[in-house]
Design goal:
By secondary structure, the chain is mostly helical. It has one domain. Helix content is 65%, strand content 0%. The protein is globular, with a radius of gyration of 15 Å. The chain starts with a helix and ends in a 5-residue tail after the last helix.
Length: 130
């Protein structure tokens, strides 16, 4: 019963069931395709439309999207791809707390690229909010 209640709280906090610990991030092809479309956007209007699509398709709190942004950062092919996760975080209004909570399951990873990507996104969003 306690386990079920804890899972319900976790689902409510993140908007989706999230592992308590994970060694790596598994890509979700539909989300990665949306992120790739955002990276290839040729206009502000096109990017704004994709941001709205991401917002509409994400769980409350963005607990499902944030790890996918980290995955995209880890696999960036150029500087535009590498900057995109930070741009999307800001455009979506994702808070430092939402980022921290969604990435908590991955913080103990032994994978250096994943740890570096997480640290970079946390640093990019700035200091924690009060």
């Amino acid at each position: 019963m306690r386990c079920a209640m804890a899972m319900a709280l976790l689902v409510g906090a993140l908007g989706t069931a999230s592992p308590l610990w994970a060694a790596s991030i598994e890509p979700v092809s539909a989300v990665q395709e949306q992120i790739a479309r955002a990276a290839a956007a040729n206009s502000e209007d096109e990017l704004a439309t994709i941001v709205e699509e991401l917002k509409a398709s994400s769980a409350p709190g963005y607990g499902d999207l944030i790890p996918q942004l980290v995955y995209a950062l880890m696999n960036a092919k150029d500087s535009r791809d590498a900057l995109l996760p930070s741009v999307l975080l800001r455009r979506l209004g994702i808070s430092h707390e939402q980022l921290r909570v969604a990435l908590q399951p991955y913080r103990s990873t032994a994978e250096p690229r994943l740890q570096t990507a997480i640290d970079n996104l946390l640093r990019e969003l700035g200091p924690t909010e009060n």
